[in-house]
Structures are given as C-alpha cells and as structure tokens.
Design brief:
single chain, 183 residues, alpha/beta, six-stranded mixed beta sheet, three-stranded antiparallel beta sheet, 31% strand, globular, binds inosinic acid, binds magnesium ion
Length: 183
C-alpha cells in the first residue's frame, strides 16, 4: 500500500467486478435502442472519471461513442468551491443521442447538476448518470443515478482516477488519503 494511504476501501479486483456488472447492465439497457440504430455516447468528466470510463466501455457490448468534458470546481483543495467552469467542451454533437454521463464521485452533486443542465440544452434523446462512488452524509443536489458503483464514507478518497492535487490517480485501488497529506 502507498505510504500516504490510510486505508484501502475498494481493492482492484472488487472494482473490476463491479465495473463488469455495470457494463453488463448498460448492454441490457441499450441493446434494443442500438439495434434500432440509435446512438449511445459515453461522456466522461475529466480527469477523474477517465479511468473508470475506459474500463466501463470495455465491459459493455453495445456500439458507442466516447467523449470527454473537463469541468473545474475543486482547484487544488479538498472541498468543492460550488462554482463550476467548463474547461473543455463536448467534441461530439449529442442531439438525438443517448448520453451516459460517467462520473468518478458524487459529493455535493454541484458538478453533475451543472453538467446535466448544460447537456439538456443540447437536446439529447436521453441522459443517464453513472457514478463510481457516492459520498453519503453531505447535503446533496438531487441527482438521479442509474448506477452507483459503491457508497463511500465522507472522507477524502484517491486512486483509480481520483486525485489530490493531481497525484494518486494511478493507484489501482481506491483508498482514504491520510489527512496529514493535505492538512
Ligand atoms: P461535487 O460537485 O461536490 O459532487 O464534486 C464532484 C467532483 O469533486 C468529483 O468529480 C471529483 O473530481 C471531486 N471530488 C469530490 N470528492 C472527492 C474525493 O474524495 N477525492 C477526490 N476527488 C473528489
Ligand atoms: Mg471529477
């Protein structure tokens, strides 16, 4: 285990097993639409969710497009500023497509609330949200998630895409960062 990690919450194998389940659920949900020629696009919020989306895409059998947006809300801190900015916009036209938003972690929900409002203005056929992790306990915007990988404690978490000041994204597991690293 990395010296800055207090505790491993989800091991590599546990994450892969859950990703396989969610991938299979996506195949079930969208195979009829895909057979009718409707398009599905996985949209990941950079940079944290890119690793999850890369694994999820390979656990899914439907034809799909992949796109990325970058939003900033946290800066280098460990709590949300509440102000969301678009750092990188969509590349694809999502009009008439089924958009599957893939997020790493749902905390206050402000990031996803902003994103969903933004996507709705672009007239997609549907929007669904998948989040790998959801933190409990905090007041959250009312975001409906079609799939949640794992519920997690209200602590600062890193690994499998999640960072603190751009570090720890490449840990293969998800763990709690030792508070002395950021305090
Ligand atoms: P929200 O807008 O408060 O829901 O924050 C969501 C975003 O904040 C996520 O996409 C992450 O990038 C980041 N975030 C929230 N909690 C954590 C954490 O515990 N570790 C790392 N990043 C986090
Ligand atoms: Mg993020």
């Amino acid at each position: 285990m990395h010296k800055d990690i207090k505790e491993i919450l989800f091991a590599d194998t546990e994450i892969q097993a859950r990703v396989a389940e969610i991938g299979a659920a996506l195949t079930d949900e969208y195979s009829e639409a895909a057979a009718r020629g409707e398009e599905v696009i996985l949209l990941s919020v950079l940079r944290g969710a890119a690793i999850f989306m890369a694994d999820l895409a390979r656990a899914t059998e439907i034809p799909l497009e992949m796109d990325y947006m970058a939003l900033s809300s946290y800066g280098r801190g460990t709590t949300s500023s509440g102000e969301v900015k678009i750092v990188k916009d969509l590349t694809s036209d999502i009009q008439g497509k089924h958009v599957v938003v893939v997020e790493d972690i749902l905390d206050s929900g402000l990031t996803l609330q902003f994103l969903i409002n933004y996507l709705q203005q672009r007239d997609p056929a549907s929007i669904e949200v998948i989040t790998l992790l959801r933190k409990r306990a905090k007041a959250q915007a009312d975001i409906k998630c079609a799939h949640i990988g794992f519920e997690c404690p209200d602590e600062f978490i890193v690994g499998y895409g999640l960072d603190y000041a751009e570090r720890y994204r490449n840990l293969p597991y998800i763990g709690i960062l030792k508070p002395e690293v950021y305090e």
